[in-house]
Specification:
By secondary structure, this protein is α+β, with helices and mostly antiparallel strands. The chain has a single domain, classed as Cytidine Deaminase, domain 2 (3-Layer(aba) Sandwich). Strands 1-6-5-4-2-3 form a six-stranded mixed beta sheet. Strand 4, helix 3 and strand 5 form a beta-alpha-beta unit. Helix 2 runs parallel beside helix 3. The longest helix is centred in the first third of the chain and has 14 residues. The chain binds tetrahydrodeoxyuridine (THU). Tetrahydrodeoxyuridine (THU) binds next to helix 2.
Length: about 160
């Protein structure tokens, strides 16, 4: 028997510990929650992607009366970023969420499994690590790459 241990490093920052560019990115993700369309869950998620040239793309969750037809904030944002800038890696993705009372969450929500898979593809497609900032009012979690959120993942190499 062999054993494999996987270690994930997460740094937790106060908002005022972030540099100016990251504060602006987190603020963009927070603002994007106010444009989400979430009449069913009343859970508003916003995301902001900073591309390697400094461009910031924002998005949010878009729900639908046919529930599975809706899409999460992370995928809205990454698909739009990749659709508009197919040659630019996403350097950092910030995510924020507000609950049904309209309050920002104290502790960040980690992205759902489908979004992690799409985040991974974005990272792999550009061969560039995508940093992730998960906003919570009590701390902002920083992960250095998507692989940290999705170890033992499925990707295109399995198709060969
Ligand atoms: N949601 C996101 O936008 N991102 C996530 O990572 C988790 C969930 C959305 C989907 C749905 O509109 C609402 O939050 C409740 O699940």
């Amino acid at each position: 028997m062999k054993e494999l241990s996987i270690r994930i490093d997460v740094k937790i920052y106060r908002f005022d510990e972030l540099n100016e560019a990251d504060r602006a990115l987190v603020e963009a993700a927070r603002e994007a929650t106010f444009r989400s369309y979430a009449p069913y869950s009343h859970f508003s998620v916003g995301a902001a992607a900073r591309l390697t040239d400094g461009t910031i793309i924002t998005g949010n969750n878009q729900e639908n009366a046919a529930y599975p037809s809706g899409i999460c904030a992370e995928r809205t944002t990454l698909f739009y970023a990749n659709a508009q800038h197919p040659d630019l890696p996403v350097e950092t993705l910030a995510i924020a969420a507000r609950n049904e009372r309209g309050e920002f969450l104290q502790h960040p929500i980690p992205p759902c499994g489908a979004c992690r898979q799409v985040m991974l593809e974005t990272e792999k497609r550009f061969g560039h690590p995508m940093r992730i900032l998960l906003f919570g009012t009590e701390g902002i979690y920083e992960l250095q790459q998507v692989g940290d959120l999705l170890p033992l993942s499925f990707d295109e190499s399995a198709l060969k």
